[in-house]
Specification:
By secondary structure, the protein is an alpha+beta fold. It has helices at residues 14-24, 29-37, 42-60, 118-124, 138-147, 151-174; strands at 3-10, 68-77, 81-86, 92-97, 100-108. It has 2 domains: 3-110, Ribosomal protein L22/L17 (Ribosomal Protein L22, Chain A, Alpha-Beta Complex); 138-174. The chain has 6 helices and 5 strands. The chain starts with a strand and ends with a helix.
Length: 175
């Protein structure tokens, strides 16, 4: 994570905000700005403000906008404002005005890998199985058995041989 920005208590439901978030998640920052500028939704306007804030944070840290992309983008539910509306027979219906908390994280496309970190060393020490010991999926085994001389392959060949006879009988009955 290079830079992040958060907006809390936004007066839009998280469901509606997630529609917009799904359009720009994982995209480069420049491209995401263009998408949000041409989108006619309230969530796009709010997200554009958050994205511009995160880009400004990244610029303050010395990163250019060209190398930035959106690595994490979430919309969580905030507190619900409850309002009441009169209904028939003296009842009251509840109106829930939902709020959202949006979190946006930017990262660079160039990753710097720390060789000294323990997680990379553990990954490097994992044994690699030779091709003969690797397990193949069951579907591949079935295909191999059918290609070779297994009983299933013989049964399949018999079915294939019987099908032309049926086709010729059908043609004779038509004619």
């Amino acid at each position: 994570m290079i830079a992040n920005a958060k907006a809390k208590y936004l007066r839009i439901s998280p469901f509606k905000m997630r529609e917009v978030l799904d359009l720009v998640r994982g995209k480069p920052a420049k491209y995401a700005i263009d998408i949000l500028a041409n989108l006619n939704k309230k969530g796009a306007y709010l997200l554009a403000k958050i994205l511009n804030s995160a880009i400004a944070n990244a610029k303050n840290k010395g990163h250019g906008i060209d190398a930035l992309f959106i690595s994490k983008l979430t919309a969580d539910g905030g507190p619900v404002l409850k309002r009441y509306r009169s209904a028939t027979f003296g009842r009251a219906n509840t109106i829930k005005k939902r709020t959202s908390h949006v979190t946006l994280e930017l990262d660079t496309t160039e990753k710097i890998i720390d060789v000294k970190s323990s997680s990379h060393r553990k990954a490097a020490k994992l044994p690699v199985l030779p091709a003969a010991r690797r397990k193949s999926p069951p579907s591949l085994k079935l295909r191999r058995n059918l290609a070779e001389g297994s009983p299933k392959a013989d049964a399949k060949k018999e079915n294939d041989q019987s099908s032309p006879k049926i086709n010729t009988l059908k043609k004779e009955n038509k004619g």
